[in-house]
Amino acid sequence: MTKKWWSAAxxxxxxxxxxxxxxxxxxxxxxxxxxxxxxxxxxxxxLLQHSEKTGLDDVVFAxxxxxxxxxTLSLPGYDSSLNRFDGPATKLDLVSPDGQYATLETDEGVxxxxxxxxDRRYERTGSVPAPERSMSERASRFQNPQFSPVGSKLYxxxxxxxxxxxxxxxxxxxxxxxxxxxxxxxxxxxxWWVDPQGKVLTWRxxxxxxxxxxxxxxxxxxxxxxxxxEPGATYQFVTAxxxxxxxxxxxxxxxxxxxxxxxxxxxxxxxxxKLVEKSEPMIGKAxxxxxxxxxxxxxxxxxxFASPVTPGAVARPALPQLPxxxxxxxRQLVGWA
Length: 337
What we know:
The protein is mainly β and about 325 residues long. It is about 5% helix and about 40% strand. The chain contains one helix and 24 strands. The strands form six sheets. It has a seven-stranded antiparallel β-sheet with strand order 13-14-15-16-17-18-19, with no helix packed on it. Strands 3-2-1-24 form a four-stranded antiparallel β-sheet, with no helix packed on it. The N terminus is likely disordered.
């Protein structure tokens, strides 16, 4: 009897002690899980935008209808290229086809960056060194970087020739082709171009249609780049609409500056159709949508308009949710992802 009573008392005491220990403090609530960052959407309109916070550049992927920013990625550098706004608008001037790499022209040459998705920023992986020169040659640097639409090559030039490197693993630049003058006196005409297959095209292989159209063709004979000159005006290539049709934008001429034009090559004769007449303010840069049905353009005052690429189309204001800027240097159209 005494043993049973003692055993029962001991069990009860242990139970009380365990209960007391369990109630001695309220357990700390589980730490709230950190909210997951929104996935990176690397589609839409690609812009190079000056950051007031850092004083450097941001790459912005914006909704092509509203202009609302989908993804903003910090880029620890700044674009020193004086002619970035002069050339055709293609995202490959800034961002690789998959958006995982970026490039900028600097005072020293060409920098390459890789996307750090977790920190939502591009990080510099290296710089392409200046081209080697003999003691008697003038010092120069690499410039005009452009990603290949296929593969992992980054192209650039030194005013004399076009070179490339593998941007995923930077090494010694490889010479691709010598630069051949286009014959045009207009500074907006590109010295070289990369076709959809990733081949470097130069004016060594120029083709002519009439006295005014000069163009470069890809391996299938399709128009890959072109310019059209008439008295008082030069039209620059924007994009190919099909093998014999190109979208062009006037880049010089007091009367024509700002005109968007559809150029169709019919049996060796260029046929011209104006899509957007003379605009005030003037068109600075244009980029076609991936389906080539719509063209977006930015004026020199930083305003945005969109137009179908069909004859008789009416241009309308675009990207209404994109905050206004004073000049194009604050936010530049790069292309359409």
